[in-house]
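Human: Here is a favour to ask of a fellow structure person. Comparing notes only helps if you start from a blank page. Give me a protein, with the fold worked out from its sequence. Please set it down just below, with no commentary around it:

Assistant:
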Amino acid sequence: MARCCAVRLGQPCLTVIKCGVSSFGENMSRSLLRVLWLSAGVLVSLASHATTVIDQPNFNAVVQINGFSPIGQSFIAMAPNVESIELKIQNMNLTGYLDARNVTVVLLSGTGFGGSTIASSTVDAAAIIGSENTDWTTSWVSFNLGNVAVTQGGAYTFGVIDTTPRFGVQYNIGDVYSGGSAIHADIGIPDYGNGTGNDLAFRVTAVPEPAGSALFALGLVSMGLLLRRRH
């Protein structure tokens, strides 16, 4: 009797249990699907967000860009691309040059100014620093190079161009960046006799491994679509 009762009453119970397990599984699948889509979105967002890969903010001197042209900085690429180069630009000679506004950065291959041009960017530095009749005002100015491809670990140089005496660029007397040095006309800029290399105050930003992040995000999306198809 107990066996018969178990057979008759157990079958619906098994059905209920199966439905519960099925519902639980579907809820888990939906939750996992949401996590996969969210993770993919985060990865895509990170893949398009530039981060600072070189940060040399130290400075204790300023040099007039036009007076030491060509002037620039050599460096080692820390990522497979360069999104932007930031420099500490300073008003040096406003008298008679208030109409001067632009500063240009040119990215070159190799160490020195003899390499091929990879990218360039011209910025209205006066709009960022200010056009008040006050010398020595300073600001970080970002030159967007458009996420240009480079060889990670390779040597590069950026040159800074100002066609007037208005702007200067801040630099550090003393070697504080081991991956390169400040240069003008392919030699070190004046170090006032301290006998060491110098470095511009500069930052380099890059988008970290966009291809790898995009492929991983695509894999997550594909997994999510597979789960969605099954349920």
Summary: The first strand starts at residue 51 and ends at 56. The domain at 51-206 is CATH 2.60.120 (Jelly Rolls).
